[in-house]
Amino acid sequence: MARRSAVKLQIGMVEHEMLHERIYRELRRALMSGAVRPGQSLSYRGLAEALGTSPMPVRDAVRRLISERALEALPNRTIAVPTLSPRNIDEIYKIRISLEGLATEEAAGRISDRVVGELETLEDQMEENLKAGDIRRYIDQNWRFHFKIYGAAEMPQLIELIESCWLQIGPLVSQQAPQTHGADIFAHHRSAVEALKRRDGPAARAAITADLSDARIALLEAMNRPEETVAAPRARRGRKTLVRAG
After folding, report:
1. Of 142, 228, 229, 154, which Cα lies nearest the Cα of 185?
2. Which of 164, 219, 229, 245 has the greatest CB tally within 10 Å of its CB?
3. What's the CATH code of the domain at 62?
4. What is the spatial distance between Cα 82 and Cα 88, in angstroms, rounded to a whole number?
5. Which phi-psi region, left, alpha or beta, contains residue 177 (left: φ > 0; alpha: ψ -120 to 50)?
6. Which domain holds residue 69?
7. Measured between alpha carbons, how far is 215 from 193 in angstroms, rounded to an integer?
8. Is position 245 within any domain?
9. Residues 6 or more apart whose Cβ sits within 8 Å of residue 225
């Protein structure tokens, strides 16, 4: 009887840990893919309802994200997505250019034809969605496009460093107004995919570096226009919003 109780307890602990990790990963994805905005106030209850769970595992996940500087605690027991200064943004992009350029060059020597094909499909979908004005879907696909490349590098420690930058910069991506310079974005992406197809690491790195450099300029220009209000990305119909404002 004692052994049976111990087994049940062990299974319960595993399930508990799996739930905590799933929620943590869902919140990380929401931040990196731009599903939330800088300065947005969030509540534990709202997050729990959106994720279909109780507030307790959400609190644990949020604590981890606060330690990673992806979220910040407010005095009124709510949480918020941090806002970044132009200086912070400039520093993060310089780091991103170095790390993501390295990941792209390494990926060129390991990427499969299947992944190259998936990148081409994603790029086509991104162009269609940006033309249709579906910024939310475009931003999510842009995140997947980049990390599909970096994942091909098979360098998990490098990916963790890149993710730490995206956790902070992801909520700001919509402020780059990608619809105003989509042609440049897609030209860089196409160049990166073509270079990866040729297994040309330096050329692939140059394309991603150019993409990030343009994104850095676009975001800093937006930050220097505080009088302008940037519209929030349009939500997709029929899909439940992951996070809600407090």
Report:
1. 142
2. 219
3. 1.10.10.10
4. 11
5. left
6. 2-80
7. 18
8. no
9. none
CA distance 218 to 221: 5
Q: What is the pLDDT of residues 178-227, one digit of tens each?
A: 888 889 999 999 999 999 999 999 999 999 999 999 999 988 888 776 54
| 132 and 21 co-located in one domain | no
C-alpha span between 147 and 155 (Å, rounded): 12
Angstrom distance (rounded) from CA 220 to CA 123 = 25
Question: How confident is the model over 102-107, as a mean pLDDT?
Answer: 98
**Could you give the percent of the chain with pLDDT greater than 90?**
55
The answer to whether position 137 is within a domain reads yes
Cα separation, 100 vs 208, in Å, equals 8
Verify that 102 and 154 share a domain, yes or no.
yes
Pair (38, 103) in one structural domain: no
- Same domain, yes or no, for 49 and 99? no
- E strand or H helix at 41, and its extent? strand 41-42
pLDDT digits (tens, 9 = 90+) for 30-69: 899 888 888 888 888 888 898 888 888 899 999 999 999 8
> 78: which 2 tokens?
């709510």
What is the spatial distance between Cα 26 and Cα 146, in angstroms, rounded to a whole number?
A: 18
DSSP state of 245: B
Q: Are residues 175 and 196 in the same domain?
A: yes
Q: Which residues contact 146 (CB under 8 A, 6 or more apart)?
A: 100, 208
Confidence at residue 15, expressed as pLDDT on a 0 to 100 scale:
55
DSSP 34-59: TSS-TT-EE-HHHHHHHHTS-HHHHH
